[in-house]
Structures are given as C-alpha cells and as structure tokens.
Amino acid sequence: MSSLTGALYGVLIVYLGGWFLGFWTGDFALLLFVLTLVTSAFWLAERLHFKPRREAAAAALERQTAARRAELDKLGIEKVDGDVAEARARLLMQPWWLDWTAGLFPVILVVFLLRSFLFEPFKIPSGSMIPTLLVGDLILVNKFDYGIRLPVINKKIIAVHEPQRGDVMVFRYPLDPREDYIKRVVGLPGDVVTYNDQKLTINGKPVATQPLGEFYDDDSLRYSPMFMEHLGKVEHKILVDPKRQAYYGPDPHTFPLHQNCTYTVDGVTCKVPPGHYFMMGDNRDNSQDSRYWGFVPDANIVGKAFFVWMNFSDLGRIGPIH
Fold first, then answer.
1. Who has greater pLDDT, 134 or 241?
2. Peptide linkage before 131 cis (omega within 30 of 0)
3. Angle in degrees, CA 132, 134, 135, rounded to 5
4. How far is CA 33 from CA 17, 107, 192, 197, 227, in A?
5. Which of 128, 224, 287, 290 is an active site residue?
6. DSSP letters spanning 86-116
C-alpha cells in the first residue's frame, strides 16, 4: 500500500507540475473530486481494516505480556524488563501512507463541500472588469444563489434564483469550458441587446449613464473616462474610451446561435436565446465578452461574485462587489 500511495502522489505531482508549467489545462473541481474519492477509500480502509488489525495486534501483545508475567509471578519473579506500553503505541501508530491519505480525507471533504455548494474563491486575472474589479483582486463566489448544482458536471438539481441584470457572474467560457470567466449580466433570455457607437440599449431603451470624470489605471498607466451605469436595479461604474472604439467589421463569428446577432462597423445587436445570457465587461473597450464569442448558457453558470476578500497590493479593496 505504501508503494501505491507513493505512485498516486507521483501522478499528482506530475499533473500539478504540468498544469503549472502550462503543458495542459487543469480542472481543479475534477481534481478535488478525485482526491475526495481516493482519500475516502483509504479512510474507509483504515476504519474497517487497518485500524482493527493494529488494535487486534496490540490486544494480542497485551494478552501475551499478561500471560508471561503471570508465569513469572508463579516463579517468584516480580520485576520484568521491557516497556509494553511503548511497543503497544508502535503497533497502534498509523503508517505514513495512511497519514497522507486517510488523515487528509476530513479536510479535503470539507473543502470539496464548501467549494462545490457554498463559496468558491477566484483571482481576477485581467482588466476586463475595471473599475469594479482590479487585476489581483481575490473574490468569493456564491455557488448556491443561482441554484444547487452537482460538482464537476455542473448540472442544476435545485433552482433558487435566476441571474438578474447587473449581477457580476462567474461562468465557464462557452468556447472552452475549462476556463472560468467573470463578466456582468447585461441581457436576460428574450432581451434584445444593442451596443452601437459605445452606447448600450436593451429592448429599445437606452441604458442611462452619468459621467464621473476619469479613472486612472495603475496597470496601464493611463486615464479613461468613467461613467455610472444604471442597469436594472444596479448602479455600477464602467469605463468607455472614445479613442478605443472596437471594430466589429463584417460578421466573421461562428459561435453557437450566432445567427441571433447582427454586426455592423458601429456595433452589434443580439437577441438573447432562451436559457442564455448576454455578458459584458465593465471595461467596455478592453473586454472580450458576448459581443465577440456569444451567449452564456445556463449550464455554464458557476455562481454570483459578491465579495473581494483580499488584494495584496491594496487592502482597501476588501469589501462587497457592486
């Protein structure tokens, strides 16, 4: 069993090493699920087989020692060398390969359950959600607000709430579900979303914005015009730079349901299909989002981002996400 445990740890190290070096894309949810299954198997084997065997061996040692001492007592020998307590402790000691498998199972199980059904941490890798979220923000995502889903396969089994306009949502990137993206919900199922000449319209009604001056981005070292956008019941800040208008050009898009979108040189108009959502970044001129790769199906939803729990460069960032 020690050889098997060593081999399993070897496979884990190779997998994590290749993931870290970029040889392949890892799936942390799947990895955590597999680790839970493997450590649970060792935990059950420890409780049902290995521990009873060690306890039986310790009990046998005590019986043998008691019988030996009884025989010596008959011979008038009262002092007996040897520490049976130390030998018993060694027999009961859990071997290293069970310490590093069965011993870790309760911790891994708790992490798996918390991450799968309650809260999951994410790190913001890009500036597409500036000024709401900055590069390096460590955020928490509510996994149950949009429904209880089975881990790994992400299948919803219990409906709770539906996404609303203005929500900041984490989802699996439709073109590569191994990647997680974070954007703001702009269009709900059935909505007609238009983004022309850097102005957002939903169902024929322009989304109200108010200028807020300029925002200085420490990463890009430049200022960008900032606005307050009123999206549904949510007020949030966005960046729109007239000098960086996106060029859509002729429709080259082949994403699923791309026929629901019409592209011009000024922008795009899309009718959101049932069971899908139209997502946009708050940094409107620096965000690859539904304007480019299409709609997010309900099956790809991970959860609702709600809290920045750490930013090592700026502790003042800690707090709720608006």
1. 134
2. yes
3. 150
4. 19, 13, 39, 46, 43
5. 128
6. HHHHHHHPPPHHHHTTGGGHHHHHHHHHHHH
Give catalytic status of residue 287 as yes or no.
no
- The whole-angstrom separation of Cα 289 and Cα 200 is 14
DSSP assignments along 162-190, one per residue? ---TT-EEEEE-TT-TTSEEEEEEEE-TT
* Residue 39 pLDDT level (bands cut at 50, 70, 90): very high
Mean pLDDT within 106-113: 95
**Which of these is catalytic: 51, 74, 79, 183?**
183
Contact (CB, 8 A) for 100 and 209: no
Give the chain's end-to-end CA distance (angstroms, integer): 51
More confident position, 222 or 132? 132
In whole angstroms, what separates CA 91 from the centre of its chain?
42
8-state DSSP, 120: E
What pLDDT is recorded for position 252? 54
Q: What are phi and psi of 102, to 5 degrees?
A: -60, -35
CB 260 within 8 A of CB 248: no
Alpha-carbon separation of residue 109 from 49, 114, 285 (angstroms): 21, 9, 42
Cα-based angle 81, 85, 87 (whole degrees, multiple of 5): 85
pLDDT in tens, 299-312: 999 999 999 999 99
Cα–Cα separations (whole angstroms), residue 230 to 37, 172, 284: 46, 26, 15
pLDDT in tens, 48-73: 999 999 999 888 888 888 787 778 77
- The predicted-structure confidence for 84-109, as pLDDT tens digits, reads as follows 788 888 888 889 999 999 999 999 99
CA dist 49 to 36, 55, 317, Å? 19, 10, 51
pTM for this predicted structure: 0.84
- Concerning whether 313 is annotated as a catalytic residue, the answer is no
